[in-house]
Amino acid sequence: MMTTSDDENEPDNMTGGEGHVAVDWKLLQKISTIKPQQQKAERDKTIVCTADHNTSKSSAAEVHHDNQLFSLPPKSEDCPTCGLILPQLESGKRYQPCCGKLVCSGCLSEAVLAAAPALPNCPYCKTPAPRTAKEALRRTKKRVDANHYPALVYLGGIYHDGLYGMPRDYKKALQLWMRAGKLGCTKAYNNVGYAYWHGHGVKRNKNKARHYYELAVMGGDVNARCNLAEFEELQGNMNMSLKHHMIAVRGGEDGSLSKIREYYKNGYATKHDYAKALQCYQSYLDEVKSNQRDKATNILGDDFRSY
Ligand SMILES: [Zn+2]
Ligand SMILES: [Zn+2]
Hints:
Blueprint: H1 25-29, H2 60-69, E1 93-96, E2 101-104, H3 105-115, H4 133-145, H5 149-161, H6 170-182, H7 186-198, H8 206-218, H9 222-234, H10 238-250, H11 254-266, H12 271-288, H13 291-300
Antiparallel strand pairs: 1-2
């Protein structure tokens, strides 16, 4: 059955920035040493995955807007250490304020397990991990001062969630995300959309939320596309919603795969759509899976899950 309530079905999948999940260093120190292994995944598969549904448009401007909205996103960024694409799941990657890189949880877990019970070095630049929250913040703010937009998004997430002993401050979070968005960070615009949707640091405004989700989608953000799909569903625009989900599943959004299955059961998607979605999601998994990432989840738990 299609969900009609905002509360039950909200487009509120916040990216959380570039590796917004903070590392629980104390927990990691307790973990014993195990030699991780690394495995390369196949990288040459590209399956174009869009729904075969058309939506009639009344003007050239709308057609142009939709062309931008439904163009296939660029390929995901690679982990700078292992070279595999970074997982879509936020728990599958971490921002490193030392060098400003996003590294995958597989590589981070390797460093953690090798260094345990001591704190690990950054898997990329080998800088020792910050010993205190104050040091982690100092490194992040130094990058923020240099307008490094992943740092802006990351610090915004810290303010939004009140991490590292900081008081929760939605307005500061929103300011940082807007600044990052203006610098070209599409992920930041997804978080701005989230803030407008929930009224975090700003008056709640669903149209503005949609606007910022769209900006993020046009830049290739998968979380924002999933949010937009949910938004369209709430408006009853099931074809538009399906089209977004079909692209999001290609980028590894498992929530979109569940939605397409639900749409198929309820007659909003065809069997062909669902089969195509399954194929696209499997193709994503083939690219992103590795023994190292599996081991990270098995040993360190869901905080290190990549898929
Ligand atoms: Zn990696
Ligand atoms: Zn580093």
